[in-house]
Specification:
about 300 residues, four-stranded parallel β-sheet, about 15% strand, Rossmann fold, 12 helices, globular
């Protein structure tokens, strides 16, 4: 039922206003339909759909690799907060800190008024992630497991932040680098590799870990690929039995301070006999960001040196 014309307005004027109101309502409905059609819908690495009514303008990153991928996607300017160790690119150092992966400052996060929080699916405690969800914040879970996931994540971040053009360009450049490395190295004679995450405890990786994907890109063969856990604990005896041709690790990891000290004392190991110890920079191989190809390039070059040491 149409409302009466306001007091003091002539009937004709009231009918004109009524038509104007109807037209305005119709226009508003059209605008709402357009807005609904323009909703941003992206599925995260947990399989959950994140729906935003408009591009995120205040994003909080809860992992260093997330911060790097946001910058790669052209969304660095939308970062309102980041976790400790989000130190790359240099511009990330100016982003306010909100704690680290294991001790988030929920009050600080709320005070920054984010419209999107991006978390590390298996790097942030589940209890803290549940707390963020209970606060009503949109939460995107990130966990790249393959090199193809890196470029896909860059594109999804670009969609969420409204920087799709920059993100598509960065993702395409990443994919080209992967293709070039694969064409050059993946078909080379395989090198059995033990990848050491840490020495105390002695941890390695299985076939589902992103570093395993990098190894295969370089023609490496992970000697513990078949184990069930993503980062299984192994014994020195198991490494001796596998007898890898090369042992690869990264500097700066907790529990890995001495690197190859254990293996250098075991001359029966093929890797020790040939001096095939490969040390990579942790930030360029352990972070699930586009910089993993920097570590990957170094790894591929080192495995070529391993091949060159083989007896004719």
């Amino acid at each position: 039922m149409m409302p009466h014309a306001p007091s003091g307005i002539r009937p004709g004027r009231g009918r004109w206003l009524s038509r104007a109101i109807v037209a305005g309502v119709a226009a508003s409905c059209a605008l709402l339909t357009c807005a609904a059609a323009a909703e941003i819908r992206v599925v995260d690495d947990e399989g959950k759909a994140i729906v935003l009514r408009q591009p995120a303008r205040r994003i909080i990153s809860l992992a260093p690799h997330v911060t790097e991928l946001l910058f790669a996607a052209g969304a660095g300017g939308a970062l309102a907060g980041a976790s400790r160790y989000s130190d790359y690119p240099p511009a990330a150092l100016a982003v306010p800190r909100i704690g680290d992966s294991f001790a988030l400052d929920a009050e600080r996060i709320l005070a920054l008024m984010p419209d999107l929080v991006i978390v590390w699916l298996h790097g942030n405690p589940e209890g803290q992630l549940d707390q963020l969800r209970r606060l009503g914040l949109p939460v995107f879970s990130s966990e790249p497991r393959r090199l193809a996931d890196i470029s896909a994540t860059i594109r999804r971040f670009g969609a969420l932040a409204g920087t799709a053009a920059a993100a598509d360009a960065a993702a395409a450049a990443f994919d080209r680098r992967v293709a070039a490395l694969r064409a050059r190295y993946a078909g080379r004679p395989p090198v059995p590799v033990f990848y050491q995450i840490s020495e105390r405890p002695l941890l390695t990786i299985n076939h589902r870990h992103i570093i395993d994907d990098v190894l295969r890109l370089c023609g490496g063969a992970n000697v513990f690929a078949g184990l069930g856990a993503l980062t299984p604990m192994v014994s020195p005896e198991a490494v001796l039995a596998a007898n890898p041709e090369a042992i690869v690790t990264s500097g700066g990891e907790a529990g890995n301070e001495t690197g190859f000290a254990l293996w250098s004392k075991l001359p029966s190991l093929l890797a020790t006999q040939r001096g095939n110890f490969v040390m990579l920079h942790s930030d360029t191989i352990s972070r699930q960001s586009d910089r993993i190809l920097d570590g990957g390039t170094a790894l591929c070059e080192q495995l070529e040196r391993v091949r060159a040491r083989r007896m004719p």
